[in-house]
Structures are given as structure tokens and as C-alpha cells.
Design brief:
alpha/beta; binds zinc ion; 7 strands; five-stranded mixed sheet; 39% helix; two-stranded antiparallel sheet; 13% strand
Length: 194
């Protein structure tokens, strides 16, 4: 039993393989790996505005990611994603000039995740900060992704913000993270109002 098995996607067997591999190598690799892990944990933090990964700056300074700090971004468009990997995939497509909001999870009755588990109040506060005119919901085209998109549209109805949903094209049940850049770019450009 090693801590490796606590990492996502790593079972007991893989954890054991990591340990056996590291033991067979020069200790230099283990030492560099340990240093890198400590450095990641101390220098990177979730962005306080959007949930993306951000570099920790000066002490007490607000932690904002490079996208939130980028003045050239379109402040009128906010793209809602389920996870950071999806944000990175959309960034690679180059189709989103606005900023992001990472939900961290999707509504999933099977996993016992309900609407109240979403950071909806944080999202509303973010919208209150303005000047957002359009919210692009880029949750995956799965049952959970659609349920989350509909909930957001309903919850934010009546606000002075247009809620749109990325077009299909990403296969149903598909993961945005693994969609190719062109498909993802088209899905964003072809978004429709919810
Ligand atoms: Zn950010």
C-alpha cells in the first residue's frame, strides 16, 4: 500500500509498478519527483475567480490565473466548464476569447450529486461583478452535462445574461477533453441560446 494508489486512475497494481520502477532507478529520479510534487503543491493554487490552476503570487495577493489576468480577454463572455481539463481543451481550440468558470462537478443523480452541490452562488457573484453578457455552457454532451446546462439556464433566467449551450458535434456521452480542436472550436462557434 503506497500513497500512489490515492491518485486518480491509479489502482493498487499500478501503484506497485511505480514503486518497483522507482526502486530499480537511481534515487535521483525519486528525489526530483518529490521536489516537483512539493513545488507543484506550494506554487499552484486554484484561481479564486474561476477555479482554473493559478500560480501563487505574493502572500495575501489574490490568486488569479493567467486567463483572469489577461486584459485582452472578452470580459462580456464567460464559459462554464465541468473541469479544468475541459477548459484546457477549449483553450487549445482557440475558439473562446472570453473567460471561464469551472464548476468542478456536474449534476449526477447516479453519483448523488444534486443542484445544491454546484457552486451556483459563487457563479452568481461572478455574474454580479459584471460586465458579462453571455454565459456559454460548455458542459459535456452527456446526461449529466445536459442536466447541468438546463439547471444553469433555469437558475439564471431573469438575469440580464444570455445563456447559450455549445452545439453538438462532440459525440453524445463524449468527453470534451478528448474532442479534437476543430470539432470543439465548431461546437463553440455554433452555440445556441438555451
Ligand atoms: Zn481564473
Amino acid at each position: 500500500m503506497t500513497l500512489f494508489s490515492r491518485l486518480p486512475g491509479v489502482g493498487e497494481k499500478t501503484a506497485q509498478r511505480f514503486v518497483l520502477y522507482l526502486v530499480a532507478q537511481d534515487t535521483d529520479l525519486s528525489r526530483r519527483l518529490a521536489d516537483e510534487l512539493v513545488s507543484l503543491a506550494t506554487h499552484l493554487q486554484p484561481c479564486e475567480r474561476c477555479g482554473n490552476i493559478a500560480e501563487r503570487g505574493e502572500l495575501d495577493a489574490p490568486i488569479h490565473c493567467s486567463i483572469c489576468r489577461d486584459e485582452k480577454r472578452d470580459a462580456r463572455v464567460l464559459c462554464v466548464v465541468a473541469k479544468i481539463q475541459d477548459l484546457l481543451a477549449i483553450e487549445r481550440s482557440g475558439a473562446m476569447r472570453g473567460r471561464y468558470f469551472v464548476l468542478g462537478k456536474l449534476i449526477s443523480p447516479l453519483e448523488g450529486i444534486g443542484p445544491s452541490d454546484l457552486p451556483i452562488e459563487t457563479l452568481k457573484r461572478r455574474l454580479d461583478e459584471g460586465p458579462i453578457e453571455e454565459l456559454v455552457v460548455a458542459t459535456p454532451p452527456s446526461v449529466d452535462g445536459e442536466a447541468t446546462a438546463l439547471f444553469l439556464a433555469r437558475e439564471l433566467a431573469g438575469r440580464n445574461v444570455r445563456v447559450s449551450r455549445i452545439a453538438s458535434g462532440v459525440p453524445h456521452g463524449g468527453d470534451l477533453e478528448f474532442a479534437d480542436q476543430i470539432t470543439l472550436g465548431r461546437a463553440i462557434e455554433g452555440r445556441k441560446e438555451l
